[in-house]
Amino acid sequence: MAEYFGTAVEDIFNTMEERFLSEGTLDVDVTIGYNISGEGGGNWKVTIKEGTLKVEDADGEVTDCTAVLNANAETFVGVTLGKLDAGEAFSSGNIKVDGDLTVLVAILPKAFKPFKPVIKASAIVESVEERFLPEKAEGVDIKIGYDLSGDGGGQWTVVVKDQTCTLKEVLDDDCTVIMRMEAQVFVDLNQGKLDGGTAFSSGQVKVDGDIGVAGQSASLFEKYVAEGAAEEEGEELISLKCVPSINQRYATGPTMGKWFDGLKEKKFFASKCPQCGRTLVPPREICAQCRVRCNEFVEVGPDATVTLIDVVYYASPDPLTGKIRETPYTALFMVLDGVSRDESFAHDLNPKDIDRIKPGMKVRPVWAEKRMGTYRDLLYFEIAD
Amino acid sequence: MQISYEDRKDCKVMTGKMALPNHYFAGRLGSKFIIALRDENKILGVKCEKCDKVFVPPREYCERCMSKLDECWVELSNEGVITNYTVVNYNDKHLPRRAPYILALIKVDGADTPFPHIVEGIDAEDVKTGMKVKAVFAEETTNTIRDLDHFEPV
Amino acid sequence: MAKKNRNVGIVGIGQTEYSSHKEHQNQAEMVNEAVRYALEDANITLDDIDCVLHGNMELFEMVFQPDMWHSLGSGAYGKDQFRITTGGTTGASLVCAADNLVASGMYDVVMAIGMEKLQEGHTTGGITNMADPLWFRHLQTGALTATTATMMMDEFGEERAKKAAMKYRILMDKHACLNPRAHRRFGLEYEQADDLMNTSPQLVGELRLIHMCSQSDGACVMIFASEKKAKKMCKTPVWIRDHITVHREETFNNFGIEMPEMTHHYAARKLFERNGIKDPVEYFDVFEMYDPSAWWGLDWAREFLLLKDDEHIKLLEDGEFDLDGKLPINPSGGVTASNPIGATAMLRPAEAAMQLRGDAGPQQIKKKVKHALASGFGGTLWSVLMMLEKDLDWQEVENG
Amino acid sequence: MKRVAVCAVAQHKCDSNIWHKRFQGMLLDVLEDIQKQTGMHFSEEGGVRSIVSASDDVFDARTISDNGITDVIGAHYREEEKMAQESLNALGYAMSIILSGHEDVVYVAGHCKESQGESRNVCTNLSYDPFYGRAMGLDYTNVAALQARAYMEKSGLTEEQMAKVVVRARQWAEKNPYANATEQVELGDVMYSPMLCDPIRTMHAYPVSDGAVVMLLASEERAHEFTDNPVWLTGFGSCMDSYFLGDRDLASNFALKQAAERAYKMAGVKDARKEIDLVEVMDCYAYQQPMWLEGLGFCGDGEGAKFIDEEGPAKYNVNLSGGMLAGNPIMTSGLYRMAEAVLQLKGDAGERQAADVNRAIAQSTTGGAGQFHTVVVLEK
What we know:
The structure holds four protein chains of four kinds.
Chain A: H1 9-14, H2 16-19, E1 29-37, E2 42-49, E3 52-57, E4 67-72, H3 73-81, H4 86-91, E5 95-99, H5 101-111, H6 121-126, H7 128-131, E6 142-149, E7 154-161, E8 164-168, E9 177-182, H8 183-190, H9 196-201, E10 205-209, H10 211-217, E11 239-242, E12 245-251, H11 253-264, E13 268-272, E14 279-280, E15 286-287, E16 292-293, E17 296-300, E18 304-312, E19 329-336, E20 345-348, E21 362-367, E22 378-383
Parallel strand pairs in A: 1-4, 6-9
Antiparallel strand pairs in A: 1-2, 2-3, 4-5, 6-7, 7-8, 9-10, 13-14, 13-17, 15-16, 18-19, 18-21, 19-20, 21-22
Chain B: E1 13-19, E2 22-25, H1 27-40, E3 43-48, E4 53-55, E5 73-76, E6 79-88, E7 101-108, E8 115-119, E9 132-137, E10 148-153
Chain D: E1 4-11, H1 23-38, E2 50-54, H2 57-60, H3 65-68, E3 79-83, H4 88-99, E4 105-113, H5 120-125, H6 140-155, H7 159-173, H8 187-191, E5 195-198, E6 200-201, E7 210-219, E8 231-240, H9 254-267, H10 272-275, E9 278-280, H11 288-295, H12 304-309, H13 312-315, H14 333-346, E10 359-366, E11 372-379
């Protein structure tokens, strides 16, 4: 099976089950399509619905999902292992996404534990010759037998003699010691996840022959590091995550105070410049052009004419809650009835009008039921047909 | 209609919050200093050969002669002397202890510069400049200088 | 405007690499790295510096008065110091401030530091906090808008506008690939344009991920000296001829029926008027423009160079903005390649000055570079525009 | 060296809770005040084209907070640069804009609302590095307390002398329409007020304050267009001390002495005691008044305590505005000091007017325990 950075594309999908974080996806209902081209690639469809996960092999190209990711095998594995910069792969088009980008950026990190490269027992044993430490094997003349069952298992003999080490693909019967165990137990022992003593005493490891040699054999080899795993950094670099937070009391002053009073009565108040007649929405204390205080208020709108439309496909997660605004949504730039010619106002559009809205159309405000004189009183604008 | 300024009836106050997530990095020198506190319960300083001074906490360059300091580490004693102190008598969200607590400048033996830390195990009235204190290290790490939890009288 | 009191030369430039992986340095150490490079470049020591300028955008790193802590790296100990911040234009404002301070005679040698360590903060959250907390902050989600893209597609047709914006972006990437300090270097080819136009993820309208500026960490430091000292210190000082800053009112409310004159256009008109520059495209040999996105970069070329209709697009299409064109834009790769926000607006005059000195590196323009234009952008369409010269041939000033 | 004129100043009354105005509202009030005084305008030909603002994003809780005030300081289609530092530094920079010949007229505007954030100590704690300073909860109050002890041990400053400083500040504040804390206190009230951060008592600390100050500067040639009673800015100097508290002798006044030396040199002042008629110092805490006066050269090292007993502050017209102890915001105190000095030199200080004031200085500080100082010299 083709491997990139020591990991096959398949390993990533096979470990999705054990890496799944259901508590992170209780309010999620998405389907993600993966079309991975190149050697070792394939098509998968992943469904995450209220804390449950379903990973299916798809025979052909996967299309109708919340988001579909297309990439070649090497880029996909490289980005998943963190060996390639996701931002660059995205920007340069090596990874293409159809549909809702925010699913990948915000939901996936919460749905899965980061992928750790799958370490196979066979990979550990087959690398004994490179990891052999001759200086540690002075006067050592032993044959170590491995009989590992299960996925990635197999039978081998490691011959250590005259400070040399050779690996045989077969289990000799005249070994100094033979160790029999599940392949995964052998991996956990080697990676330090499982303590030798407990593994032996709990019967997970059976040793035939010289038990002393079994314990001592580990010191003859350098620690195995999975090729895909991020290399151990030279030195530990300390960092501190925190959220400095300062509560604020924002004054509205009379001008913005009048604006919020207006919202409570479903009205838009603009401050009017006594010198140039410009109407400012939301109202401001001063006309920036004439540098003159604007005490006078006029009621404007409520309807407006759309001048420009921004359809927003990507909303960055809220820095504190991580919540993402449902996309796509539309921001409207509009001229409220009765305002001066160069003053525009901006607010959201009712999502149901997203396909019909065009510059030049008339729109009207939609108000919240209960209004308290805050920004929440004005929900959005909709087409006034 | 006009705004009224005198009776301020149109004026309101909207509560809000300014808060953003931050992820600070101590840098190579800072990490070595904090790891020494955390893992070996040791206080390290850096020495400027030219000025013949040992600085705590460590910094990459000597401010006076701009020579690089990141190779000459010095292991310092866990005991030192209070060179200055105050008794913090107010409470606030950023303070490490409830009031009243003692914030002091402590020069550990072997260092030329004191650094600020907390003194416990003594009443505020009895603290005096010049007192000998020793370091008490924290159980839980916080990745900051508070891996040294506080100083207490010797 | 009164005559300049004395001339000011750029004698030292120092830049760190721009990346988003500076876990090995804290903020003061990153500043110090750029300070050391600048002192080396100017071939002087900290003792020669009279005054230090510091600038960044506090809420990205959430440090109050960071110049106090950064004095560990900025070398401000025992010196005069100012801290000037104007949002995105901070770097350019620092250069203008340094020019004013040295020209005034109050200081002979001034060092300006622009820095940002976005990795330690939250960029989008920081930018969203720019808006008024009572109203606009609840509408805004970061600084992304496609109004310029929409207006350009209306004016020049969708196809031509989208192709031009993508050609501009790929041109910037080609320049960035020559710049060893640039943060993002994709190695894009013009053949990829059509594909990228449709596949690069859509952010807002036709503003796509590929068009957007990056988020980088890094610091840029420049050293300025009075004419007499500059000539003694450095073989090729770069002279600051003139600069102008134009701000706009608090709100983005200029999308009504009549659009007001763009601040960039106003700045260019005023600056060129008072310096007798008739045709900027002819006069300048390089333009380092603060282009936060490919759309804005292309649109603003028309504003800054006082062009009309589609002249700016023709210049792009005819390759006049390339390194060997009539007026190369952003040999450094521009803001889409590196964007350490506090330093970004200083990168522009810094890279322009290196072009004038002839030591800009692989991205050095081949033909003679005597006159440079550099711009800064920030706030609600704020603009800083400055003119740099290779020779002191525009104004005789006795007490240099 | 050409000269720069301060044509006029306008101060907003300081108060501990200006809840009924945005900071834009405060700035608009003082803009109208100074427009009335000087006929100042913003036209492209001959009007104000360059503005230096002074504020801080953390206290304003807003990124690029000078973007919020662009309209009310007249910066629409004009040049504006923000001094994100103590406001007195904005004076030095504005001075350079005029002396460099870049512009002839500069409008300086500083504001700060300490009551908007939940606590000013939380804000100043953010000035420290996250791993050593912030983790120890350092802020400008408890760090000042460390300096107070160091200075008291060096100069022998007593509780009673500190109380005298506060009582005197309140006496002068009562005559200052712009001061915040004006109710009179006795020595005993101060000496037995609860301990805030030993040895600083609650009455030793300046009250939480909101405020704004604006000034109009002009070149020597054009000052007459705006005033017939200009005050001349003749000296400016500032200086930075070390960041780590341990690297400094907290009672040494290292930075203030250097800043004062440079400002005096530029203004041609040889001996402060003989040549300066009025002093405005930024005394955030009572111990700082005698200490800063030592740094400025009005008494010898360690003699600040004696100086208080010898009525030194009265002799040299120190803080006739009531000073920082009467309550000004942290980022704008420098401009409040400047404003008093300008009014005194113009002879417009009303009840507080001192006799024949020809040369005055204003001092301000920022950073923990006076890490950074700024001094400005003004003359009639």
